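Dear Dr. H.,

I hope your travels went smoothly. While you were away I took the liberty of generating a structure for the chain from your last submission, since the lab meeting agenda had it listed for discussion. I wanted you to have the full record in hand beforehand rather than looking at slides cold. The sequence, exactly as received, is reproduced here:
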Amino acid sequence: MNLGGVQTRDVVLANRKGRSFYAIVTGKRQGELQVEPIDRRVTYYKVKAREVVEIWHRRRRRNGTAPAAEDSNG
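The corresponding predicted structure, in token form, is as follows:
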């Protein structure tokens, strides 16, 4: 997978050594990502580009603000 558009705080689904897990990207190097697994039982902190299955980007709105939280009071 091409990691050109991946930034820190993006969420990835990775498959390393047959084990699939979700992780938050904490850094990027040539051909690999530094990640923080969401599941504490996973101890992989680096994944290669070929091990990334899917990417979810965390982006800000065009005006530079974060999306507003939903009001749950009906």
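Two observations you may find useful: The first strand starts at residue 11 and ends at 16. The two ends are 42 Å apart (CA to CA).

With kind regards,
E. W.
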